[in-house]
Amino acid sequence: MEEELDLYMQSAEEGMQEALERLARELTKVRTGKASPSIFNGVMAEYYGTMTPISQMANISTSDARTITIQPWDKAALHPIEHAIMAANMGLNPQNDGEIIRISVPPLTEERRKEMVKKIKAYAEECKVSIRSARRDLMEAIKDAVKDGFPEDAGKRLEQKAQDLTNTFTGKADKTAEGKEKDIMTV
After folding, report:
1. Above pLDDT 70, what percent of the chain?
2. 141-153 pLDDT, tens per residue?
3. 2-28 helix and 110-147 helix, angle to the nearest 10 degrees
4. Which listed residue, of 8, 99, 136, 148, carries a Cα 20 to 30 Å from 163's Cα?
5. Which residues contact residue 83 at a Cβ distance below 8 angstroms, ignoring those fewer than 6 apart?
6. How far is the C-alpha of 7 from the C-alpha of 135, rounded, in Å?
7. Residue 180: what are its φ and ψ, rounded to 5°?
8. Can you state the angle between helices 152-185 and 2-28, rounded to 10 degrees?
9. How many Å apart are CA 91 and CA 142, to the nearest integer?
10. What's the pLDDT band for 40 if we cut at 50, 70, 90?
11. For the domain 2-28+109-185, what is the CATH superfamily, name and number?
12. Domain boundaries, the chain
């Protein structure tokens, strides 16, 4: 029974780690006002009838702190990439010159920065909900094991360990979100 609870503990920890990784992925998509190729990680364009990530269709680079250049390997992909960026509603305006798409990243206004911070807090809260969900499942497994004859004091120690694990991961989620907020609020 103890091995089974150890598996539940491992599973909960993995679930919490996945939630943290998902938060990190979501935060890379939030624009900070600096040009970064990673803001296009989730953008898909239709390419010969298949939805394809832009990063697999073109070379994405930054030419300076405010400009991103996208050079497709196939010129036929220029318009689909341009449309995908517009459809992603990122507040960016791609300029197509027939060879390369240039995107000038405008500086963020104070209002836009506050919106971004709200979005970051929502992502962090989703992450914490996932972490607490993993803890809840683990706590239920521990309580069921105690009902089935597992020593109560050992069950209490495992519950405390689960709570400590939860506190650690929620702290990491908060730190990650705070770092991104600080990055966005820096003018």
Report:
1. 98
2. 999 999 998 899 9
3. 170
4. 148
5. 45
6. 13
7. -70, -40
8. 10
9. 48
10. confident
11. Ribosome-recycling factor (1.10.132.20)
12. 2-28+109-185, 37-104
Q: What pTM value is reported for the model?
A: 0.70
Three-class SS state of 186: coil
In the DSSP assignment, the letter for residue 154 is H
CA atoms within 13 A on the CB side of 20: 19
CATH classification code of 37-104? 3.30.1360.40
Q: Residue 61 forms beta bridges with which residues? A: 69
pLDDT tens sequence across 60-103: 998 887 889 999 998 888 999 999 988 887 778 889 888 899 98
Cα distance from N-terminal residue to C-terminal residue, the chain: 55
pLDDT attached to residue 70: 92
Tokens of 6: 């150890």
**Alpha-carbon distance values, 96 to 41, 76, 175 (Å):** 20, 12, 39
Residue-level pLDDT at 114: 86
Region of 53 (left: φ > 0; alpha: ψ -120 to 50; beta: rest) is: beta
